[in-house]
Amino acid sequence: MGIFKAAVVQMRSGREPGRNVVDFEALVREAAAKGASYVQTPEMTGAIIRDKADRAQAFRPEGSDVIVAAARRLSAELGIFLHVGSTGILRDDGKIANRAFLFAPDGSLVTRYDKIHMFDVDLDNGESWRESATYEPGAEAVVADIGNARLGFAICYDVRFPQLFRAEALAGAEVLSAPAAFTRQTGEAHWHVLQRARAIENGAFVISAAQGGLHEDGRETYGHSLIVDPWGRVLAEVDGDEPGVAVAEIDTAQSAAARGKIPNLKNAREFAVAEVEWQAQRAAS
To answer: Which of 27, 42, 206, 242 is deepest in the core (most CB within 10 A)?
Structure first.
């Protein structure tokens, strides 16, 4: 069990990683100054770019990515766990990963996580996204230690797949995460309820930093970075879509308490699905 302060960093990343890293560093420093020992940034911290050619120019291999380098340096300087919610990384095979990173207080890389579920959707008012046309999905859930707590990883659209969070909770995660760049349309409808639902059904904290506002490439994201407790209560929120920081105390004993009251992780049972064709039954009778 452990008690620590966690922070969500809300950004409005543009198309230029070199500019975004300046905002990233300032906001991470602000979070650390507020006492956070675990700091999380949003999905696509390094750059939000719609144009394919521009993405090819901006994204770099992990070893030369400016966000990765800055995160490594800042985590060591500030003595914090620094969770880059994700950034675009050019893989060795020429494909792009939507990849999260966790750095330890000594600057070492703890782990990576590649977003598993691709945001391929057709929304109202002609808004359409095909993330799979750009990014190569991951295939492995990740749980890692952050001091005296265990953290489960996810990114944005992953939050709509509760089986991922359940698997991580069963693997010992008391803290779950879903850093995001939620569209305004989907955020207004579902952001808060999805975060709270994942917390309640797993008896876990959910920490989700977000992108917010109108971006250079024309997309609009919802903001409202959140920290939710295992009972589904919002502990901290960056209200609205402006860049900022929100901090809350995390006590993993609250996860154990919630799971003790409602032990659904233990009570789950295997079951089959019976498919009944009523018309066939009617004919037979």
So the answer is: 42
Round to whole Å and give the CA distance between 279 and 140.
Answer: 42
Two structure tokens written together for 224: 């409202």
Residue 130: φ, ψ to 5°:
-135, 80
The answer to whether the beta carbons of residues 224 and 240 sit under 8 Å apart is yes
Res 120: pLDDT: 67
Judge whether 120 and 132 are in contact, CB under 8 Å: yes
* 229: its two tokens: 């407790």
φ, ψ (nearest 5 deg) of residue 94: 90, -10
d(CA 98, CA 90): 9
* Residues 6 or more apart whose Cβ sits within 8 Å of residue 220: 183, 184, 213, 214
Q: What residues contact residue 10 under an 8 Å CB cut-off, 6+ apart?
A: 27, 42, 209, 210, 211, 212, 223, 225, 238, 241, 242, 243, 244, 245, 246
Q: What's the rounded Cα separation, in Å, for the pair 47 and 246?
A: 22
Verdict on whether the full-model pTM lies above 0.90: yes
Catalytic residue set: 43, 115, 156
Instruction: Give tens-digit pLDDT for 54-95.
Output: 777 789 999 999 999 999 999 999 999 999 999 999 998 888
Measure Cα distances from 216 to 53, 176, 183, 234 in Å.
15, 30, 14, 30
Supply the pLDDT for residue 27: 98
The pLDDT of residue 132: 72
Length of the chain, please? 285
